[in-house]
Design a protein that fits this description.
Layout (H helix, E strand, L loop, with lengths): L2 H15 L5 H15 L12 H12 L5 H9 L2 H4 L4 H7 L2 H15 L7 H14 L3 H16 L6 H21 L3 H15 L1 H13 L1 H21 L4 E7 L2 H10 L11 E7 L2 H14 L1 E2 L5 E2 L12 E6 L5 E8 H9 L1 H7 L13 H8 L6 H8 L7 E5 L5 E5 L4 H8 L1 H5 L1 E6 L2 E3 L11 E5 L10 H4 L3 H14 L1 H18 L4 H5 L4 H8 L4 H10 L4 H25 L24 E3 L7 E3 L11 E5 L5 E5 L7 H4 L8 E6 L7 E10 L4 H11 L3 E9 L4 E10 L2 H12 L4 E5 L4
Parallel strand pairs: 2-6, 13-15
Antiparallel strand pairs: 1-2, 3-5, 4-5, 5-6, 7-8, 9-10, 9-11, 12-16, 14-15, 14-16, 17-19, 17-20, 18-19
Helix pairs in contact: 1-3, 2-4, 3-4, 3-9, 4-7, 6-7, 7-9, 8-10, 9-10, 9-11, 10-11, 11-12, 12-14, 13-15, 16-17, 20-23, 24-27, 24-28, 26-28
The chain binds manganese (II) ion.
Manganese (II) ion binds next to loops.
């Protein structure tokens, strides 16, 4: 076929699905590309224009995209490989076409080395994030598909490298975008170069049985077709075999033979209406013996991603099992073409206007075929892209930072030593200020010096990530220890004085170890340093020590009472039987023994929380969290409050469990409650109430009543809930 004929074929393809396409501009794009690539050849020796033409053909055949996408596909290598410029394309075609071409070029420039899984996931996310317009990634995938189809002309080294990249980056993206057919082809082509022997083995086995298989497929299809025809159900039947890579995975991972693979064959019946789907199911089960437990009704209960179909596995007449999927035309379109199907109906909609920037992510997730729930949740995370930015180290590693991150965040993400010795930064080779905001795809280099004086306090305000901030704080903590100890000591002593505790009581060699244990520091200097840099407060330290000193004092009294002369004559003192202070529900109320204790309903404290007590009229002591608004200093100073607030602390004999509550704010989605219950059961947390409220803007507020042992367990539960996809905030209600 001549180049001209290939172009005519492209026009014909487009005309078939989009007769109103802008053929004048498309032809102009072809002519422009042809002229600019003139003289360039592909590795095969063919003129270069063959490649953009073929990419445009894929964009038309497989994705059925709009005119601007076809133009961009034809021009996609012009900025990168010819002297054409963004401005030129923008003027001659449109700013959109130019930005699509620019976007594809940007993705082309990224170099991927083989990396561990996490890096791969970051790369995939970055690629999608960089393609602000979904069409960029669609054209890029078409580009990669054509390059893979013509990979035979490349060196073996390049073949392996590109195939690996395709397998790890592009096939998963195609899958995520719901484009199953392209995904399969990319996987098969990659496998061919990554494991030529394994691939060949499968292909030749399939070839060897081709006649047998073809006959089976034709016969089965004909049986279904005929029966449905007799019943005048309007339908189409397709048959397909599992593709080589998918067979490869089953054979090699599960160590199976070709005939042991259950779903080697699949048939798809597409009908007009939902009721016909169920009619067809009846017919299939009548024709063939259904295999128990393999029927799935994704029409009545769609998959979390919205995929709909009836699936059943049956035994064919020759004892060969196969799967049948039954769906309506509409369900079929969405399952088959994924995001592209939506694109077709939404020309010009994405990338601006009412449709949000990440709207397409939601759409594509609705259309994923065969993705299970876990995978769905996983892919949902790309929806969170608005708060992430992906940048490169000079070595090509991807760093994932919060949106708005600066070189300071980057430096500390690499290593605290890098941050602490930073004197400057370069982005894409140019020196920038440390507060510059990083963009997706930036290459960031940190300039360090041994003579660096260390971070400045201002960095703490500039840094976006908590990681950077805490590392900077760490530095101040370490480097300024002397200073911190001095300021910490001063505020500690002031607080002691304020509470009327003599310093000598604290320094008493008998008391000190117990006191330090209460505040979890091994020396007084450590405690001072912590107070000095702000990691702990003098108030908290004194509060805890006061409880301990009270306990020691009571112990002494008890000891004294236990001193009795042995046999009434010896002066020897019998060691006291240690008598633990009895506490009510694990609470020690200073100066009061065994008084009635109840936990306030407003803030439901658990062991480990800072607490205060309020003497109620007639109901004993009510215990609040120190940070409860109902126990705020303002409240405590209010009228009628004087003398009623007392110090309370947790004893060692706390109860098995304490009742408390949590509030979870999240984006509403399927299976949310399921995921949260999974966390609760994995942490052995008993739930007594769970109440979900959804708001109109798709947020959900979940109120949980749970029983926990102490604040450690509670923190653990909160941390795990926070890690669930879609969860925005976990708080303990108070007040
Ligand atoms: Mn290309």
């Amino acid at each position: 076929m001549t180049i001209q004929e290939q172009y005519e074929q492209l026009e014909a393809t487009i005309r078939a699905y989009n007769p109103g396409a802008d053929f004048e501009q498309i032809r102009a794009a072809f002519t422009f590309a042809e002229q600019h690539h003139r003289g360039q050849t592909r590795k095969s020796g063919e003129p270069y224009i063959i490649h953009p033409l073929a990419v445009a053909q894929i964009v038309a055949v497989e994705l059925k995209l709009d005119s601007e996408s076809i133009e961009a596909a034809l021009l996609h290598d012009c900025i990168e490989d010819t002297n054409a410029t963004h401005d030129q394309i923008s003027k001659l075609f449109s700013p959109t076409v130019a930005s699509l071409v620019e976007g594809v070029s940007k993705l082309t420039r990224i170099q991927y080395a083989t990396k561990e899984d996490e890096q791969m996931e970051n790369l995939r996310k970055m690629l999608i994030a960089m393609s602000k317009d979904i069409r960029v990634i669609l054209i890029k995938i078409a580009d990669r598909l054509h390059n893979m189809r013509t990979m035979e002309y490349q060196t073996p080294e390049k073949q392996k490298q590109k195939s690996l990249e395709t397998m790890e980056i592009y096939a998963p993206i195609a899958h995520r975008l719901g484009m199953q057919r392209i995904k399969w082809e990319l996987e098969d082509l990659s496998l061919k170069y990554l494991d030529p022997i394994g691939y060949q083995e499968i292909v030749s086995q399939l070839d060897g049985k081709k006649q047998e298989y073809d006959a089976f497929m034709a016969k089965t299809r004909q049986q279904i077709d005929q029966r449905l025809g007799e019943l005048s159900i309007e339908h189409e039947v397709y048959g397909r075999m599992k593709h080589p890579y998918s067979i490869y995975r089953k054979m090699f991972n599960q160590n199976k033979q070709l005939d042991e693979i259950f779903d080697l064959f699949a048939f798809r019946v597409v009908v007009g209406t939902v009721s016909d789907c169920y009619n067809v199911l009846g017919v299939i089960h009548d024709l063939y013996k259904p295999i128990l437990g393999r029927f799935k009704d994704y029409i009545g209960t769609p998959k979390p991603n919205g995929y709909q179909s009836l699936h059943t596995t049956v035994l064919g007449t020759d004892g060969i099992p196969f799967e049948v999927q039954i769906r309506t035309r509409e369900m079929h379109e969405v399952a088959e073409y994924g995001v592209a199907a939506h694109w077709k109906y939404k020309q010009g909609g994405i990338g601006g206007g009412t449709e949000g920037r990440y709207e397409w992510v939601r759409r594509l997730l609705e259309n994923q075929e065969g993705a299970d729930a876990e995978e769905y949740i996983h892919s949902l995370k790309i929806d969170m892209f608005s708060d992430e930015v992906f940048v490169f180290t000079p070595n090509g590693d991807v760093q994932n930072l919060p949106a708005g991150a600066t070189p300071i965040d980057f430096a500390y993400a690499i290593h605290s030593a890098v941050g602490n010795h930073m004197v400057g930064a370069k982005v894409n080779g140019r020196i920038v200020t440390l507060d510059s905001v990083l963009k997706n795809g930036d290459i960031v280099e940190i300039i360090t010096s041994k003579a660096a004086k260390g971070p400045s306090r201002d960095w703490m305000k500039i840094a976006k990530s908590s990681e950077a901030r805490s590392k900077i704080r760490q530095w101040f903590k370490k480097e300024k220890k002397e200073e911190n100890i001095a300021t910490g000591r001063a505020s500690f002593e002031a607080e002691l004085k304020h509470c009327g505790i003599p310093m000598k009581d604290v320094l008493d060699s008998e008391n000190l170890p117990g006191l330090l244990k209460r505040v979890s520091y091994s020396t007084l200097d450590d405690l001072y340093a912590a107070i000095g840099y702000g990691g702990f407060t003098a108030q908290k330290a004194v509060n805890r020590m006061q409880g301990e000193l009270g306990r020691i004092a009571r112990q002494h009294q008890a000891d004294k009472a236990a001193v009795v002369p042995i046999d009434g004559q010896s002066d020897e003192v019998r060691p006291a039987v240690p008598k633990t202070t009895k506490s009510e529900r694990g609470i020690i109320v200073e100066g009061l023994n065994n008084c009635l204790v109840k936990f306030s309903k407003c803030c439901t404290p658990v062991p480990g929380d800072e607490i205060v007590g309020f003497i109620t009229r007639g109901y004993g002591v009510s215990v609040h969290r120190a940070d409860c608004p109902n126990a705020s200093p303002e409240r405590r100073a209010g009228p009628g409050q004087e003398g009623r607030w007392i110090r309370v602390s947790w004893g060692t004999d706390t109860d098995e469990s304490y009742h408390t509550s949590l509030e979870v704010v999240c984006k509403d989605r399927n299976n949310l409650v399921l995921d949260i219950s999974a966390v609760l059961s994995s942490t052995n947390t008993r739930v007594s109430a769970l109440n979900l409220r959804t708001s109109e803007d798709q947020f959900a507020i979940l109120h949980l009543e749970i029983d926990v042992r102490d604040s450690r367990q509670l923190q653990d539960v909160m941390k795990k809930i926070m890690q669930i996809s879609g969860v925005l905030k976990v708080t303990r209600p108070a007040g």
